[in-house]
């Protein structure tokens, strides 16, 4: 089964329905994907999901108040973390691998710190630590991207996720086209209320005191493009330096926030190698 055909399911978490999709072989430790700002189930690159699902059970989900999931979106990363942990437990999973992209990477770090036994391995992409350089400016950068997209009649992700070089523009167009592959049963669009709550949570994360990342002793794979405007690439380097058991993928060249989507073949190959027991 391909991600574009995976059925959307729901599980009750404290009386609130959380929607999710899963695919890939049963058995082993599943890979839980935690999404970026303003993203719903349909914003995951199907090449990344299908590539990982060739070897692992992959689960994507909408956290509280996002997409078709119920409830109200929290305004802190910590509260989002508690919801994600509750979702994992509601599925009856004893242990997971995490792929946290952007805001999902913030949540992944907190899960590993709060429930370390629940996590086996972690992949952090396009993300950074609490208090990381420039993270509190995501709101301004995002709004600039939205305005630019409106003026150029383009999806904001074109400029927010990819460089403005010829290669970056082409990679962005290909990525956005892949996001349209699912034609039926698409997720509910992100609400403005949830979007605002996420922006507040990210700004607070960016203004926090730096966390002690030495407590995250899990194997961690760190990836990003070399020109990330949303979560400056310096944060990726900082994560690799501060996490005691990290593996750093050299920054993808001529790539932005969506580096793992632009270089999806290379990323999937490296991720599968990292996730091998």
Automatic annotation (TrEMBL):
Claim: Hydrolase is one of the keywords in the record: yes
Residue ranges that the Swiss-Prot or TrEMBL entry lists as coiled coil: none
InterPro entries: AB_hydrolase, AB_hydrolase_1, AB_hydrolase_fold
GO molecular function: hydrolase activity
Protein name: Alpha/beta hydrolase
Domain AB hydrolase-1, chain residue ranges per copy: 30-260
Provenance organism: Micromonospora halotolerans
Keywords: Hydrolase
Domain of life: Bacteria
Organism placement in taxonomy: Bacteria, Bacillati, Actinomycetota, Actinomycetes, Micromonosporales
Pfam families membership: Abhydrolase_1 (PF00561)
